[in-house]
């Protein structure tokens, strides 16, 4: 049996063979332990949704407009009354020290250097306050509802006090579907790795189940958030509250009606329920349900600036990048993440220029052609 080579230490320079943002994905296995890489790269189940996310982007064709003056072009976008230099956000990723010893702190430094909005995870390896100190720009906080409302409210108040500008509530992962790829690789979270934000809030003990009760329905789903929990949260904060994990147009319309400030169309990067549609496939129908002026973001499957263009054309105001940030972080720390973001933005700008779109407002459904599978309702 061939021994597994230990991962290399992160570099203090950009590797010369990184020519595009996606190159970090190919290079990352040299810098991440095999089990951790399987956990980061893998999806749930048979990974059908993970594959669908990538193939959906690949199937969308761009239709360039000719003779357009783009010399005054830019990538600025306004969300919740705040101007961002570009529409590429760093998605919330748990336990980033699996990729790099400095984890979320280096990611925050990269966000600071590139004027990028960072969405910090509830399950980060460093406290939300420490992350915010390393990015004085735009930060949002991703919130998982906790078993006790007092713990949830404590996270909200801490995020408000630390200057986070929005809350992103993840609702599609009440039960974490296991990654078979990670299980086959023998991956287990290191025993000393725990969510820094939850140190003051240990989880309640397990509830005993009667023999006739289900480990899933009466066990794991006992703590799943409800409509009442969401309504309670909306009443607790003045920050914009976004919901992440939306794939259905009817859910989107109902969440907008409840007072949610914006939505993130997402299938958890293929790490939730396997077999759901690609996020990109759901996007146009959700845009139709919420109207033209409602904030709508997308994650799951972004690998290039051209993918960003495709998402914007099909209805997104901005996108979030997940795995690419972990790969770049593993290869070269803060420098790698900043470089990956620079590449994505330049790839987007190049695509916009050649497609005849000077601003994000010029990117619409007429700028792309997509197959019938993306036209059918979800």
From TrEMBL:
UniProt keyword Oxidoreductase present: yes
Pfam families per UniProt: FMN_dh
SUPFAM superfamilies the record matches: FMN-linked oxidoreductases
Binding site for FMN: 92-94, 121, 142, 170, 244, 266, 299-303, 322-323
Ranges where the FMN hydroxy acid dehydrogenase domain occurs: 13-373
Catalytic residues identified in the record: 268
Binding site for glyoxylate: 39, 144, 268, 271
InterPro entries, sorted: Aldolase_TIM, Alpha-hydoxy_acid_DH_FMN, FMN-dep_DH, FMN_HAD
Keywords: Flavoprotein, FMN, Oxidoreductase
Top-rank lineage group of the source organism: Bacteria
Cofactor(s) this protein requires: FMN
Gene3D superfamilies: Aldolase class I (3.20.20.70)
Cited PANTHER family: 2-HYDROXYACID OXIDASE 1, S -2-HYDROXY-ACID OXIDASE-RELATED
Family (UniProt): Belongs to the FMN-dependent alpha-hydroxy acid dehydrogenase family.
Name of the protein in question: Alpha-hydroxy-acid oxidizing protein
The organism of origin for this protein: Thauera phenolivorans
